[in-house]
Every structure is written in C-alpha cells, then in structure tokens.
Amino acid sequence: MKNETLITLCGSNYGETYIPATCNIENCKVVNLFARGSQKSQQVSKKFSIPLYKNFEEAISESNLAILATNDDVNTKLSKALFDSKIPFILEHPIKTHNLESIISLSNKHKIPFLLNTHFTSTVPIKKFIASFENISKYSEVQLIEVSANSRTLFSTLDIIEKLVGLDDINVISTTNLGDNHLNHVLNISGKNVVLNLQTWQNELDDSSDCIVGHSIRVNFNTGNLLLANSFGPIVWAPIYSTNYPADYTIHELFEDKNKKLDVANYRVDANKDIITQLIESNFDECKAYYERYLKVSRAWEALLPNHTKTLQSKDIDHRIWKISK
Question: 284 and 250 in one domain?
C-alpha cells in the first residue's frame, strides 16, 4: 500500500459508517463516493464534502483502496473492476457463496487481497465474549450452545460461532417453524450440540430497529453457563451452584457498558477502523488466510437462512417493551 490511503466508498447507506473510522487512521481518507445519486448519497456527499460519482471507473481513478458497501450482487460486479485496477478492498456481508467463490478466484488470480467485514467479531463486547469462552474452555467441556438471532444478523452470528467452535461440519437434526415469526434449528456443529432460534420478521425500514435480539449466545459448560445477552452485552458467567457452599456462589458480570447506554455508533466505528487498518497493513498471503473461513460462514448462512422473512409495518409491532420501567 502507498503511504497515503485514498479510499473510494461504494454505497451510502451503511457505507456512511466507514467515514468516521477513516478520520481516526493516520494518512487515510475517503476521496470519492460511488452511488446511484439518491437523496441519501447526495446528503452524505454534502455532509462530508466527498465528491459523488455515478461512473465507477472515474470513482476509483485516484484510489488505492475501496470499500464495497452496496448489495451482494453489485459488490461482486464491482470487485472485478477493482481486481483489474489492482485495488484491494473491503467487502460487506452477507454474501452468497457463489459470489464469494468468484471473488476469491479473482483475488488468487490477480494476487490482490480483500477482507470481508462481518463487524461484530471486531467489537469490544464480542471480543470479550470470545476470550471468555476460550478461557473457560481450558478447564470445561461444552454441553450445549443456545443461539438467538434474526435474519439480518444470522451471517455475523455464524461468524461468531465459527470463532468459538468452527463450522467444519454442520448437521441439521431438525427444523421447526415456531408460529409465523420464528424458526428453530437443532444442529450439531463441529461435534457440539447447538440450538438456533431465528426471528423471521423485520420492520418495513429493514434496519433491525425492531429486532427482539441481534446476537444472543448461551454456552452451557459442565462447570457453568456463559451468556452473551445481546450484541453489545452484558456478558455473564454463572458457575454451577453448589448446595454445599452456598456462601461462595457468585455470578460474575464480565462485560457491561459502564455508562449503561449502548454506544453502538462508536462500536461500529472501532470495528470499521480495525478492518481498514488490517487491510492497509496486510499483504496478499495474510488476507488469503481468511478466505476459507469466509466460505465456511457463507455456506452455513445459506444452509440455515429462512426461506421467507416477513415484513411488518411499524403500526403492527408492539413497542410496549421499550416502555417497561426498571
């Protein structure tokens, strides 16, 4: 990479969250925005004083790194031009397996790296949860993993599971529709018993704001239970209770936002900063080492994704949960 990192950002919706991350990286900036020219893209262009292009070749003409934050199929199409121009890039998730295989094939052919951004394994709460799992696993055995997610977060949830136990071998024992809004998978993953519950509805904005849960994982060990309550914590370790020593029993809170308010924006900025920095500092072989892992997550996602996701209007969603007082 050159001393100065000049980025073309492709996509203005979620793509906008990458811009603050570049402000925290030395000699790094977004120089161009490639988008369709929607009202949103015009707002982002004006807000951050970034030129807006509708022609991709023009948008990448002065860049040495790109971020593909449009939809899966468009990202795949744009990646071909980036390989031809020898520009490394960051790719947004989720991505279908055949698209990912095509991108990996071109990456290997051109020796130009890319990284897939699944976000959550780079956030502070999930890093803490994974580290806690690894530590407890040194002296305990996993009995059962219970997972709750929604259709939008399934890909990143499986990325977390891959970090915990791998995704080398997935056997679907049973799949059950729980009413209109939930799907239950009973699985064996890498020799571990896993129950996966999926919320299969979303609001009409398709922004996850009404999702009951993003990423919730409970690991039952033979020594106790480790719980990630939701995407940003809290994380709790509850050892098995002993009636012989009740005075010694303690539930340990391993992570909770100290301000009691979720600083989601900063978590995302930090995660995006990490992957941009990683791509800047990595060579092709270092990035290539992740490709097989990406494929495992994508294949699992396609196998377990619900066939249909129900869209509800905001007026049909019960928001009373937000009004419950402490």
Answer: no
